[in-house]
């Protein structure tokens, strides 16, 4: 596209190597996370948790705990309004979770009571003194069991424990299968995964007699927390201030209410003193939420020449005790299971089932990693079954710019075809591999923010306000949440590019509901596109106001274009003619009777289909060595071919893609959450295995140049989508190395050993 | 929460054993604390006194002479053993084992004495040192005692020491001629604890026949397990594939592993079979090459 | 011939599509219509989720066809 190259020539700040603007504060320990907040008179809170997976709370006697010296208060569900909350403000039946339940607990680790005391030690000691009388109920832990007639009822009136169903369909699937030469069906299971943020759930709440509540909280959306807390406390949103200036990771686990924010607020309101609640690592494991475990059944019909005819998928997911964001994960897994291919006929039915286990929810990839583990492995096996080139088969059916996913989405930019070419070259260069070594790849796509408003916000999805100071420094106020992904830096770059100043001129204010405009926050890969657009518009607004004064001052013919770059206001055709930016600001201030220049911008997607305004595309290749005797997997090398539109910050992009790779590879072969009778068996970092530096291969990135018309400067998603393809790529590498098909993730060593044994037995029987 | 304790820091071994004697059942020794702090945090150990012997310089040494063999002091760090040029020459299996023992930080701070006294069945040094016929010297106010390391471990996290004793030194006899030792653990993360580990020491004669063998299994029971039936299969033979496979199977039978979330009992036995075969081959091949 | 949804009157060419629409919507109005036909919505849903094929959809499609005259 010619506009691409024109636009690119003009870029001064975008896609340079910019170090995170909060990096120095972080590495020198000055960044104040919720964990670090200390307020005068602050108390420490601890949460008593259910030891039972399913039980009625008959009575709670806190008298002994209250008698302990230093204990200031104990609260239970009875001290709350008992609001069943959830992010589904438009769908009340999906709001099913009381953070301090009044009548019944539904998973091990669910909060039952909370204590505030003068020290953390006393608060913890007090927990042992609270006497809870339970009527233990039968528990059920697996979705297929929970759907049985005789299974216990987890939520009153929810028949067969079916929480939600999601259905997606286009084309004529039956006819599609009739046209196919080859049909393959497979069952898969994808496990859960812990979000494992470096900063555990943490909050400091301070309620004052004026009726105002201030909360420092580690979250992905300060605005959601403000609105949700106002809802459960019966307060006005404006009287609740949420501050999430520095957040130690989110990964999809921190945009719902958690026990830390809820109990600290309830305790603080009771005592009119600040209360701090910090989760231990074990609490973060057993009592937050997790990636949704899914049972997948996939049926795919293909013609001999590799043309995709029809696909049908059915998912049963383990919802755990509450809805969380699980309903959206159930929908998105079904949608992205079709990606990145043109299925003329597609059908998906998803069923989410309550169980007495840790609730499942969104996690980086939002259902898509499960979808791709199944889809991309099955396609690889089909290509092998039919003797087709797995790259060319995929390429032939891939999305392209201008394609419409029937009734669902419009694809305006797509670098998939080039990604296939890049991957093909990489694989060819590897040549013949030694024994027990394989290369696998997998394709995927992802959204750049969701077009969902189940939260029913009346605000724009993103807003920004930019104020120009007299010395030409800039205050940028955004509601986006910086959770370590670098969004403040991204917005500073977009602002600097748009206004024509330097990154260091931009002061970004984010993560404080009192001072920043509402924004849905950091989830669903939305901020670069949505907050980025709002920021760009706000800066364009301010710049247009300033340039009016420049035109007037310079007395130019109106056919001349004026622009600002590197703090220099100038005529585009005669760049040497102009004035410094700060001089122009001073002129404008004088001209406006001293009013500061304020630009406003906002963004809400319109006419962009059902899911997202734009889609990223990626291929992940991995080279894997497998020890066939022990089943041990070693990642040797990788290649990421990635289309995120115009990268905003090249350094930030590298960080996001490397992080996504490590999390996704961990999902593929390490991160495993075994439950026994509702109890998580490895709630610590000794027994829960994650990729470490020693396991990370090199992760070179091939960035594919596309331009997304809906994104700011052509940008789209980069931080989340690459979580999707990797588990399948590892599975495909194992398939090519050893000829076995791994239908469960994480792929653990004994599974490979068993699969090889089974294969050897079959071959023996065949002879 | 960690139970409140009084921190004691002796300046000499003499002071340390006196403190031990004073507080017998209310104290724990810390010597690096890489394992101890975890169980203290979990509340599994609640001690009133913590005696920190890590600063005892008199126990920080690696000494060797051809007659007495090797002596490593209790406060010697894993990193010192890993980096020792002397050990790389005389007992190369020790630095190799140490390099994969744990993360860099743990290797920098943790000590050999602390590791051996902690008696974790998944510990790496014990199986290797037992394969090398090591002894362990412990001391108290009453004096010193020396145990065969192979007889030191009595149960999970239990040793033959009494509560007034502390580990002072590990002693390894000189390597016999044409003898080599190999160790490998199975894990998913490079520097993680072993799901199982296998140490094999092989001595050969001039013809390449195995004349002596030690097969010690880690995390294959509540203490390090000596796989005697596997050793019997190896001794008197040249180690071809058939012998190695048989030895692996025998070791798997000798083991008494648990099932847990990391591996079932059956899979642990399978891994022991594979690793025994591989380590016996590796040790044999190295021994044969030695002059 | 077109088939109407007995609960909300939306119509499709194939009765099976109406059945899929009824399950897909799954709100109170549609559930109640299924229950009024003497079959359990939850039972049909579970059968559909846990078994291959489309038996539940077919059952509802048959009911939809029978109900067309009364619409």
- Beta-strand level of the residues of chain B, as a percent range? 15-25%
Q: Give the helix tally of chain B.
A: 12
What's the main sheet of chain C like?
2 strands, antiparallel
Which CATH architecture of the largest domain in chain B is right?
Answer: 2-Layer Sandwich
Q: Overall pLDDT of chain C, averaged?
A: 90
Question: Oligomerization state of this entry?
Answer: heterotrimer
- Indicate the mean pLDDT of chain B: 96
Secondary structure: helix percent of chain C: 55-70%
Low-confidence stretches of chain B: none
The succession of helices and strands of chain B, N to C, reads EHEHEEEHHHHHHEEHEEEEEEEHHH
SSE order of chain C, one letter for each helix or strand: EEHHHH
Written account of the structure:
The complex is a heterotrimer of chains A (767), B (291) and C (71). With 767 residues, chain A is of the alpha+beta class. Chain A has 19 helices and 33 strands. Chain A is 29% helix and 25% strand. In chain A, helix 10 (326-336) packs parallel to helix 11 and helix 11 runs parallel beside helix 18. The longest helix of chain A has 28 residues, at 527-554. By secondary structure, chain B is α+β, with helices and mostly antiparallel strands. The longest helix of chain B has 25 residues, at 265-289. Chain B is globular and about 60 Å long. Chain B starts with 5 loop residues before the first strand and ends with a helix. Chain C has one domain (3-70). The A-B interface holds A 120-121, 124-125, 629-630, 632, 669-670, 672, 674, 681-682, 686-687, 689, 691-692, 694-695, 749-750, 753 and B 1, 38, 103, 186, 188-193, 261-264, 267, 270-271, 274-275.
Briefly say what this structure is:
The complex is a heterotrimer of chains A (767), B (291) and C (71). Chain B is an alpha+beta fold. Chain B is built from twelve helices and 14 strands.
What would the keywords be for this entry?
heterotrimer, A: 767 residues, alpha+beta, Aldehyde Oxidoreductase, domain 4, 7-stranded mixed sheet, 6-stranded mixed sheet, disordered N terminus, C: 71 residues, mainly alpha, two-stranded antiparallel ribbon, 4 helices, 2 strands
Topology readout:
The complex is a heterotrimer of chains A (767), B (291) and C (71).
Chain A: H1 2-9, H2 23-27, E1 43-49, E2 55-61, H3 63-67, E3 71-76, E4 104-105, E5 111-117, H4 120-127, E6 131-136, H5 143-146, E7 162-170, H6 173-179, E8 182-190, E9 202-208, E10 212-217, H7 222-233, E11 240-243, H8 259-271, E12 275-278, H9 281-286, E13 290-291, E14 294-302, E15 308-320, H10 326-336, E16 345-354, E17 360-361, H11 368-386, H12 390-396, E18 404-405, E19 409-410, H13 416-430, E20 437-447, E21 462-468, E22 474-478, H14 487-499, E23 506-509, H15 527-554, E24 562-565, E25 568-571, E26 578-580, H16 581-591, E27 597-603, E28 615-626, E29 633-643, H17 650-669, E30 675-676, E31 679-680, E32 701-703, H18 726-738, E33 744-745, H19 749-766
Parallel strand pairs in A: 1-12, 8-33, 10-11, 13-17, 15-16, 22-23, 29-32
Antiparallel strand pairs in A: 1-5, 2-4, 2-6, 3-5, 7-16, 8-14, 9-10, 9-12, 14-15, 18-19, 20-28, 21-22, 21-27, 24-25, 25-26, 28-29, 30-31
Chain B: E1 6-8, H1 13-23, E2 27-30, H2 36-41, E3 49-52, E4 62-65, E5 69-73, H3 78-83, H4 85-90, H5 93-99, H6 104-109, H7 112-118, H8 125-131, E6 135-140, E7 143-148, H9 149-152, E8 153-155, E9 158-159, E10 166-172, E11 179-186, E12 196-204, E13 210-218, E14 225-226, H10 228-234, H11 241-254, H12 265-289
Parallel strand pairs in B: 1-3, 2-3
Antiparallel strand pairs in B: 4-5, 5-10, 6-7, 6-10, 8-9, 11-12, 12-13, 13-14
Helix pairs in contact in B: 10-11, 11-12
Chain C: E1 3-4, E2 11-12, H1 15-25, H2 28-36, H3 41-50, H4 55-67
Antiparallel strand pairs in C: 1-2
Helix pairs in contact in C: 1-4, 3-4
């Amino acid at each position: 596209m010619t506009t691409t190259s024109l636009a690119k020539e003009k870029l001064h700040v975008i896609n340079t190597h910019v170090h995170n603007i909060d990096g120095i504060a972080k590495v020198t320990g000055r960044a104040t996370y919720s964990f670090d907040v200390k307020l005068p008179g602050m108390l420490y809170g601890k949460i008593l948790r259910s030891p039972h997976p399913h039980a009625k709370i008959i009575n709670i006697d806190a008298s002994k705990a209250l008698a302990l010296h230093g204990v200031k208060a104990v609260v239970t569900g009875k001290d709350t309004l008992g609001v069943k909350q959830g992010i589904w403000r438009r769908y009340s039946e999906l709001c099913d979770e009381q953070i301090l339940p009044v009548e019944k607990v539904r998973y091990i680790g669910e909060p039952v009571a909370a204590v505030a005391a003068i020290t953390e030690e006393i608060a913890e000691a007090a927990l042992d003194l609270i006497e809870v009388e339970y009527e233990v109920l039968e528990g059920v832990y697996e979705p297929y069991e929970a759907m049985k007639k005789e299974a216990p009822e987890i939520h009153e009136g929810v028949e067969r424990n079916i929480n939600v169903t999601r259905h997606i369909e286009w084309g004529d699937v039956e006819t599609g299968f009739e046209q196919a030469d080859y049909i393959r069906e497979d069952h898969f299971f994808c496990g859960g995964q812990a979000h494992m943020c470096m900063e555990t759930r943490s909050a400091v709440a301070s309620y004052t007699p004026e009726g105002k509540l201030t909360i420092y909280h580690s979250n992905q959306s300060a605005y959601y927390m403000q609105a949700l807390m106002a809802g459960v406390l019966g307060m006005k949103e404006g009287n609740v201030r949420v501050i999430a200036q520095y957040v130690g990771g989110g990964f999809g686990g921190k945009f719902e209410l958690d026990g830390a924010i809820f109990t600290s607020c309830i305790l603080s309101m009771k005592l009119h003193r600040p209360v701090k609640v910090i989760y231990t690592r074990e609490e973060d494991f057993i009592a937050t939420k997790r990636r949704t475990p899914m049972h997948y059944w996939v049926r795919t019909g293909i013609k001999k020449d590799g043309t995709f005819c029809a696909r049908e998928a059915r998912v049963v997911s383990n919802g755990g005790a509450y809805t969380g964001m699980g309903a959206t994960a159930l929908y998105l897994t079904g949608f992205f299971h079709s990606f990145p291919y043109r299925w003329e006929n597609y059908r998906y039915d998803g069923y989410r089932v309550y169980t007495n286990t840790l609730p499942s929810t969104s996690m980086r990839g939002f259902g898509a990693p499960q979808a791709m583990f199944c889809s991309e492995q099955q396609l690889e096996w089909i290509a092998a079954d039919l003797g087709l080139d797995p790259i060319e088969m995929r390429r032939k059916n891939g999305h392209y710019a201008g394609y419409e996913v029937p009734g669902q989405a419009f694809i305006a930019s797509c670098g998939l075809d080039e990604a296939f070419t890049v991957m093909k070259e990489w694989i060819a260069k590897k040549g013949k591999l030694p024994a027990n070594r394989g290369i696998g790849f997998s394709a995927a796509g992802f959204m750049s923010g969701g077009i969902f408003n189940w939260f029913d916000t009346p605000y724009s999805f993103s807003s920004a306000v930019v104020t120009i100071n007299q010395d030409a420094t800039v205050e940028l106020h955004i509601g986006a949440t910086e959770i370590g992904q670098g969004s403040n830096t991204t917005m500073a770059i977009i602002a600097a590019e748009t206004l024509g100043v330097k990154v260091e001129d931009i002061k970004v204010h984010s993560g404080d509901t009192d001072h920043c405009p509402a924004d849905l926050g950091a989830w669903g890969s939305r901020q670069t596109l949505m907050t980025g657009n709002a920021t760009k518009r706000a800066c364009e607004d301010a710049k247009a106001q300033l340039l009016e004064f420049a035109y007037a001052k310079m007395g130019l013919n109106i056919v001349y274009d004026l622009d600002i770059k590197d703090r220099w206001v100038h005529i585009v055709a005669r760049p040497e003619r102009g004035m410094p930016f700060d001089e122009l600001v001073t002129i404008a201030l004088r001209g406006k009777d001293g009013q500061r220049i304020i630009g406003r911008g906002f963004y809400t997607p319109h006419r962009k289909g059902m899911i997202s305004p734009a889609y990223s595309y990626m291929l992940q290749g991995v080279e894997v060595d497998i020890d066939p005797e022990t089943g041990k997997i070693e990642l040797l090398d990788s290649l990421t071919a990635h289309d995120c539109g115009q990268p905003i910050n090249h350094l930030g992009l590298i960080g996001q893609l490397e992080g996504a790779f490590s999390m996704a590879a961990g999902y593929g072969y390490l991160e495993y959450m075994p439950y026994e009778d509702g109890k998580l068996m490895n709630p610590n970092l000794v027994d829960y295995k994650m990729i470490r530096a020693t396991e990370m291969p090199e992760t070179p990135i091939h960035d594919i140049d596309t331009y997304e018309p809906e994104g700011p400067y052509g940008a789209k998603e980069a931080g989340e989508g690459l979580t999707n393809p990797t588990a399948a790529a590892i599975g495909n590498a194992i398939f090519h190395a050893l000829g076995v098909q791994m239908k469960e993730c994480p792929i653990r060593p004994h599974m490979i050993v068993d699969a090889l044994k089974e294969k050897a037995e079959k071959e023996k029987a065949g002879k | 929460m960690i139970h409140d304790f009084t921190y004691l820091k002796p300046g000499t071994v003499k002071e340390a054993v006196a403190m031990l004697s004073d507080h017998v059942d209310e104290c724990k020794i810390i010597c690096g604390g890489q394992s101890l702090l975890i169980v203290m945090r979990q509340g599994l150990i609640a001690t009133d006194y913590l005696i920190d012997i890590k600063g005892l310089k008199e126990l920080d040494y690696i000494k060797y002479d051809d007659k007495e063999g090797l002596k490593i002091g209790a406060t010697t760090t894993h990193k010192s053993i890993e980096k020792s040029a002397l050990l790389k020459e005389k007992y190369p299996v020790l630095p190799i084992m140490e390099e994969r023992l744990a993360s860099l930080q743990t290797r920098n701070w943790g000590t050999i004495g602390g590791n051996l006294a902690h008696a974790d069945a998944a510990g790496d040094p014990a199986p290797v040192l037992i394969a090398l016929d090591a002894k362990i010297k412990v001391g108290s106010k009453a004096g010193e005692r020396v145990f065969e390391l192979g007889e030191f471990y009595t149960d999970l996290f239990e040793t033959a020491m009494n509560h007034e004793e502390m580990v002072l030194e590990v002693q390894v006899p000189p390597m016999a001629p044409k003898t080599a030792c190999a160790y490998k653990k199975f894990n998913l993360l490079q520097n993680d604890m072993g799901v199982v580990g296998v140490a094999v020491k092989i001595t050969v004669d001039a013809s390449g026949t195995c004349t002596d063998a030690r097969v010690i299994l880690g995390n294959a029971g509540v203490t390090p397990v000596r796989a005697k039936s596997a050793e019997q299969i190896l001794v008197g033979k040249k180690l071809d594939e058939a012998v190695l496979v048989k030895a692996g199977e025998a070791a798997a039978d000798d083991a008494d592993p648990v099932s847990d979330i990391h591996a079932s009992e059956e899979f642990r036995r399978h891994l022991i079979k594979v690793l025994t075969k591989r380590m016996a081959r590796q040790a044999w091949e190295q021994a044969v090459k030695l002059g | 011939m077109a088939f109407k949804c007995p609960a909300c009157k939306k119509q499709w060419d194939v009765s099976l599509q109406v059945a899929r629409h009824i399950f897909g919507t799954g709100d109170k109005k549609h559930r109640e219509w299924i229950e009024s036909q003497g079959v359990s919505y939850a039972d049909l849903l579970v059968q559909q989720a846990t078994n291959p094929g489309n038996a539940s959809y077919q059952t509802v499609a048959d009911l939809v066809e029978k109900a067309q005259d009364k619409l």
